[in-house]
Amino acid sequence: MLSKITVVGAGNVGATTAQRLAEKELARTVVLVDVIEGVPQGKALDQYESAPIEGFDTRIIGANDYGPAAGSELVVVTAGIARKPGMSRDDLVRTNADIVKQVSQQIKQNCPKAIVVVVSNPLDVMCWVTKQVTGFSRERVIGMAGVLDTARYRAFLAEALDVSVRDIQAMVLGGHGDTMVPLVSYTTVSGIPVTQLLDKAKLDKIVDRTRNGGAEIVAFLKTGSAYYAPSSAVVQMVESIVLDQKRLLPCAAWLQGEYGLSGMYCGVPCKLGKNGLEKIIEVELTADEKSALKKSADGVTQTMAAVTL
Ligand code: APR
After folding, report:
1. Residue 279: phi, psi to the nearest 5?
2. How much distance in Å is there from the Cα of 121 to the middle of ligand 1?
3. Cys bridge to 194: 21, 187, 241, 279, which one at CB 3.0-4.6 A?
4. Is 176 a catalytic residue?
5. What's the CA-to-centroid distance between 11 and ligand 1, angstroms?
6. Is 187 within the bounds of a domain?
7. Distance, CA 98 to ligand 1 centroid (Å)?
């Protein structure tokens, strides 16, 4: 158990993450920080009042400043705004980059030793902003996307095969967006290659649905985006770090030559333990997967160009 974890952004993803972290008692204190007056305080109090029923002793505190967050060993960044009608993708990038810059300065000042898990979108670019502004090493700035994309892929496969989700092993790599790269060649069902269980047409459909997984939820919700599965994904990463589980999870990591890519964040298989990103695992890819990863990475570089730091 850590002594303190801070979640910045008390919106749907942030608040649900705080509740899940507390229910798993991954820290003695969880601090929820947001710019909206009263919201982090109200949500934190409401969550703490569930403690006697759920049976956790984590204290949840809400704040509009970083005083209570000081000294956090881990920070989850979910602050940002959703795209509004008429707003271009580049406008959204710049707005969220400004928010994440401001949040990163506060993290640098108040939580200088923290490991940071970034969730704000566009994910790969927001990870880069966080790393640049905090000056933290790549071991301490990791992005959540692949775990969520992989969970969606595993859920769709389990549904199509009518088997337990637990028995589907898979990895989705690449940037977080419609160019993500589900690795069909490494997808197994209790060790059986999925290609022996589903024909290509069905697999292609599932890969496509995975790539559009975020949009599918937005189309239903209309005024917001997914948060139950995203918060579960963040907590799985945090748990691996806090409990030093050394799980291999697909995360956005700063690349220095791995997979032939450098100077950018992209989703790759990572080992997460008490030091944060402990290792990037390089696996062989098929020619199609390699070119899809390159295309996805090019998309990240283009989005980075819209931001001035
Ligand atoms: N500091 C702290 N919090 C901020 C700041 C800031 N500078 N700017 C905005 N916020 C807060 C907002 O007040 C809001 O409460 O971030 C919160 C975002 O919450 P939601 O709008 O509910 O968005 P959510 O669904 O939680 O998604 C958050 O995660 O998955 C990504 O794409 C998603 O970038 C988005 C982020």
Report:
1. -165, 145
2. 9
3. 187
4. yes
5. 5
6. yes
7. 13
Question: What number does the ligand 1 atom closest to the CA of 10 have?
Answer: 15
Among all chains, which residue has been given the structure tokens 């008692």? 25
Domain that holds residue 227: 146-304
Cβ neighbours of residue 44 closer than 8 Å, sequence gap 6 or more: 10, 18, 30, 31, 32, 60, 61, 62
State residue 272's pLDDT score.
Answer: 98
Write down the catalytic residue from 4, 20, 152, 176: 176
Candidate from 35, 98, 100, 104 with most ligand 1 atoms within 8 A of CB, to mutate: 35
154 and 278, same domain (yes or no) = yes
Helix (H) or strand (E) holding 28, with range, is strand 27-33
Residue 121 Cβ < 6 Å to ligand 1: yes
Residues 6 and 134 in one domain: yes
Q: Are residues 139 and 192 in the same domain?
A: no
Distance CA 24, CA 27 (A): 8
Cβ burial, residue 187 (10 Å; 0-12/13-18/19+)? buried
3-state SS assignment for residue 102: helix
Structure tokens at 21: 């972290």
* Beta carbon of 82 within 6 Å of any ligand 1 atom: yes
Q: Indicate if ligand 1 lies below 6 Å from the C-beta of 12.
A: yes
Q: What is the pLDDT of residue 88?
A: 75
Q: Are 2 and 16 in contact (CB under 8 A)?
A: no
Number of domains in the chain: 2
Rounded to the nearest angstrom, the gap between the alpha carbon of residue 223 and the centroid of all alpha carbons in its chain is 21
C-alpha span between 301 and 309 (Å, rounded): 14
d(CA 273, CA 269): 13
Q: How many CA atoms lie less than 13 Å away from 130 in the CB half-sphere?
A: 36
The torsion angles phi and psi of 180, rounded to 5 degrees, stand at -60, 160
Predicted TM-score (pTM) of this structure: 0.98
- The low-confidence residues of the chain, meaning pLDDT below 70, are none
